[in-house]
Design a protein that fits this description.
Chain lengths: 320, 286
């Protein structure tokens, strides 16, 4: 942001009419004060909102995690690290962590791999590809709650779509409503179905912006399709992969609507309960906001660590 | 994948096998997306007893719109719709205005600490909503704002992504034009309104679309803030419908789902190009 003095000459030269004021210096020095106050004025509302409703609660959440607060009581008594001790000792912690891990790894891994595959497929010259592109992206704009409600009936073990299709090939439908593993499969599938369009669209944009000369060079060298993919395509897509791995991870760890609508964290208590869902359940259903805040804090720390590791891995990959 | 230059794509030297595989893949993908949607629509058009038969009816006979009139009369569907429109409208407008103003200050005005302020804004993207809801819930409840529109709207109104998107756009504008306008004596607001925004139209449209879709689909916060049709938007209303009785009556529920999906899908079909531009613009720079 400095070529001001260079440009002014040209700009003034083109001007007709009254002679230009004698350059920027006076305006700059007297202008500084109003420029600062204008910036403050423009930024203030947004900053206040972010501080009050994002950063303040982030800090307040840590304070609450050391109390026995229930969300409706006026006072919260300090209990030290009792909530954390409880979290580490509780039997359901492992289940919830396991569910979160399975759900997150599956949604991030599958939606990125499928998104890239579809992007490569629909980057080719095929008739009707625009229609399929739109179809893949469409579910991404629909509300997760609506999709959750609808897919509950798609997976209905007695009268659902999946049951009907399986019956046609003589397979009995798993009990998606009562069996924990299948319920987790159901919410994972539904989430991927809804969000695949996002990774697809981002990868497609990256593919369309890639360097054609490298593709040609690889062809002239007679590289096999696999070698071409590994050594030419993937390295070019690395920044995109990195960006997606962080954004998709953040949003899939946060999923609430689909789980709340489809299973309420069940069956059998916590069959599909993830960390985020546990935060909601402890805070608002079990009236234990202090413990809920503890789970939320643990979750935030885990996310922070994972993100830092991702950035590190990416840095190393780029230097290599 | 065969190598080819962009624009002039060589169809000729792709093997027929690959072409067949390509079309097979396309058909498969289309089926996986379309069949569940088709299933939802036909269920919404079935009479009650036709929903619970095996094997399933793939073409409802007779088709009926009873579920649609049922859902719109049995629950205050129009109230939910109104709430969705109010919340989405007000929230989108304020996010767009705040995002543009913040981005303008962070790109075209000079002041000390600009880099730090920018960091504070985008770091908010890394804070999951679910971590902030406990404390925010307490704050809003204390203010007596549960079951009010301001209680839903104000805590969601801060803009991080949009600021980031618009700032990138403003920084990419040609400096000469902006300097020329400044020398012509355009004040900062006139500069924004007459020069910067008109040149940033496509990005602004993309940002607006993404915001509208996101707010229309917002679930967790309105779910915590609303007990009933006074303020609950459609996605929350749908859940209430589902829980009305022990056994879900899928016909009206599916009709409600279709009605909830329709507005965004139509918006998407008309404006998907702009919407996609906004999403990819956010990704490309990093």
């Amino acid at each position: 942001m400095q070529p001001t003095s260079l440009d002014t000459g040209a700009a003034q030269g083109e001007r007709t009419g009254p002679p230009a004021p004698v350059g920027p210096p006076p305006r700059r020095s007297s202008g500084r004060a109003w420029e600062w106050s204008l910036a403050a004025l423009l930024l203030a509302p947004n900053l206040v909102l972010l501080v009050v409703f994002t950063y303040r609660p982030l800090v307040d959440n840590i304070r609450l995690s050391f109390t026995d607060w229930n969300i409706s009581a006026p006072v919260a008594n300090p209990v030290g690290v009792a909530n954390y001790v409880e979290w580490f000792g509780r039997a359901d912690t492992r289940t919830v962590l396991g569910n979160t891990l399975i759900f997150t790894v599956a949604t991030v891994g599958i939606s990125m791999a499928l998104g890239l595959g579809l992007a490569m497929l629909l980057d080719q010259r095929l008739r009707g590809r625009n229609l399929v592109r739109s179809a893949v992206f469409a579910p991404f704009v629909i509300s997760g709650a609506a999709i959750g409600v609808a897919f509950q009936f798609v997976f209905d073990p007695s009268f659902g779509l999946v049951r009907d299709l399986l019956a046609r090939i003589g397979v009995e439908s798993p009990d998606f409503y009562q069996r924990s593993g299948w319920a987790l499969f159901m919410v994972t599938f539904t989430y991927i179905w809804k969000n695949l369009g996002y990774t697809f669209v981002i990868y497609l944009a990256a593919l369309q912006g890639r360097r054609a000369d490298l593709d040609e060079a690889a062809e002239i060298d007679g590289a096999s399709p696999w070698a071409h993919f590994r050594r030419v395509l993937l390295p070019q897509l690395r920044p995109t992969t990195f960006f997606l791995s962080i954004t998709v991870l953040l949003s899939s760890v946060q999923v609430f609507d689909i789980i709340n609508v489809m299973t309420r964290g069940g069956p059998v208590g916590n069959g599909t309960t993830t960390l985020v869902y546990q935060v909601y359940q402890e805070t608002f259903v079990n009236q234990r906001a202090g413990y809920g805040a503890t789970v939320a804090t643990v979750m935030f720390l885990l996310l922070l660590i994972v993100t830092i590791v991702q950035v590190r891995v990416m840095d190393r990959g780029q230097r290599a | 994948m065969s190598a080819r230059a962009h624009g002039a794509e060589a169809i000729s030297h792709r093997s027929p096998l690959k072409t067949v595989a390509g079309y097979t893949g396309m058909v498969l993908v289309l089926l996986v997306i379309a069949v569940p949607l088709f299933w939802i629509v036909i269920t919404s058009l079935k009479e009650r007893q036709d929903i619970y038969v095996r094997p399933a009816q793939w073409f409802p006979q007779p088709a009926t719109t009873a579920n649609y009139s049922d859902v719109t009369t049995r629950i205050p569907f129009l109230d939910y719709m109104r709430n969705s429109i109010v919340i989405t409208g007000v929230l989108s407008m304020s996010k767009i205005v705040l995002g543009v103003l913040s981005a303008y200050a962070l790109s075209l005005l000079r002041f000390p600490g600009r880099g730090i302020v920018f960091l504070v804004v985008i770091a908010a993207l890394m804070v999951p909503n679910q971590i902030t809801v406990i404390s925010n819930y307490a704050l809003v409840a204390q203010l007596g704002w549960r079951n009010t529109f301001q209680g839903i709207i104000i805590p969601l109104a801060g803009v991080a992504f949009g600021t980031f998107l618009m700032r990138n756009q403003f920084l990419n504008l040609p400096t000469e034009i902006i300097e020329a306008a400044r020398l012509d004596g355009a004040g900062p607001l006139k500069l924004l309104w007459r020069v910067v925004l008109p040149m940033s139209w496509p990005t602004l449209v993309a940002f607006s679309l993404i915001t509208v879709v996101n707010e229309w689909n917002e679930y967790l916060w309105p779910f915590l803030m609303s007990d009933d049709e006074r303020t609950a938007p459609l996605p929350v209303g749908l859940t209430l419908l589902q829980n009305n009785d022990g056994v879900t009556n899928w016909g009206p529920v599916m009709a409600g789902t279709v009605l909830a999906m329709l507005p965004v899908l139509v918006l998407f079909l008309v404006l998907q190009r702009q919407m996609i531009k906004g999403l990819t613009a956010g990704a490309v720079k990093s």
